[in-house]
Amino acid sequence: MTITLKEIKEKKKVQMSFLDDSIKELIKDCKFNEPVEIKCTFILKPDKVTLNIEISGLLSANCDRCLENFTRTIKITEKRDIKFDEFGEEFNISEEAFQDILLSLPMKFLCSEDCKGLCPICGQNLNFGKCNCEIKNSQEKEI
Fold it and tell me: Residue 35 in 3-state DSSP?
């Protein structure tokens, strides 16, 4: 979805809300189960445009510790000023939302902060219970 500087200059304030299906599978290691909802407001200032953007969606990923699939609702709210010369003729809102999503994602996806991961010997998911393997202290630290 794009908007032109001309549209914003004519209306002074432009509000938009739309579902973006193009972002669903662009990000490596995770995907959105449904279109991403994007709400934004462009406000004209003397030498710039203020953008308020809110992004929400249902993210699905595999946990980096236990490998189980999980879903999580994400909600991102950003506000930024864009100078006219940076704005260009057309402004791609979907691209801006995509960048905001990338910057908000964690380095590692975890199903929960206290995820115990997998046993390094037998591979059992330790979140579902202990296994019978004997883990030495040096191996335990690697988990």
Answer: coil
Residue 40 identity (one-letter amino acid)? C
Domain residue spans of the chain: 2-112, 114-143
In this predicted structure, what is the pLDDT of residue 67? Answer: 95
DSSP lists the bridge partners of residue 59 as: 32, 72
Half-sphere CA count of 141, side-chain side, radius 13 A: 3
Angstrom CA distances, 3 to 9, 27, 28, 70, stand at 11, 24, 27, 35
Residues of the chain with pLDDT under 70: 24-26, 136-143
Q: What is the pTM of this model?
A: 0.77
Separation between Cα atoms, residue 102 and residue 2, nearest integer Å: 19
SS3 of residue 23 by DSSP: coil
Q: CA dist 85 to 48, 82, 88, 89, 101, Å?
A: 9, 8, 6, 9, 24
Nearest to 93 by CA among 44, 20, 35, 26: 20
Q: Identify the pLDDT of residue 139.
A: 52
| Residue 55 to residue 39: CA distance in whole angstroms | 7
